[in-house]
Design goal:
Helix content is about 45%, strand content about 25%. By secondary structure, the protein is an alpha+beta fold. It has one domain: Alpha-Beta Plaits (2-Layer Sandwich). A four-stranded antiparallel β-sheet has the order 1-2-4-3. A hairpin with a 2-residue loop joins strand 1 and strand 2. Helix 1 runs antiparallel to helix 3. The longest helix is centred in the last third of the chain and has 14 residues. It is globular, with a radius of gyration of 12 Å. The two termini are about 15 Å apart. The mean pLDDT is about 85.
Length: about 100
């Protein structure tokens, strides 16, 4: 998907390169805080120099409808240029 690349995906952890986060420490911090508040996400780390976002999660909790909806809403609010349905499908395939 444009602007996003999966760097690593393994059970319980997803590493993404996000173009919009690169060189933007304020946005990176905001995304980190919002994602960390979602049920099922255990830890979020970021690197604004590289635009890297690493999410550790509990799949049994994160794949609940409520958590997936919160995840989609969070990504959509920070990255409105990305089609939300495409994003939801892409995220569900990556988790």
């Amino acid at each position: 998907m444009d602007g996003f690349a999966v760097m690593d995906s393994r059970p319980g952890q997803l590493s993404l390169a996000v173009d919009k986060l690169k060189g933007n420490p304020d946005l990176t911090r905001e995304v980190q805080v919002e994602l960390a508040a979602i049920r099922g996400i255990q830890q979020v780390s970021t690197d604004p120099d590289l635009g890297l976002l690493v999410v550790a999660y509990d799949k049994s909790q994160l794949t609940s409808f409520t958590s997936l909806l919160a995840l989609k809403a969070t990504f959509s609010s920070f990255f409105p240029e990305v089609d939300s349905m495409k994003l939801a499908f892409w995220l569900s395939q990556s988790l």
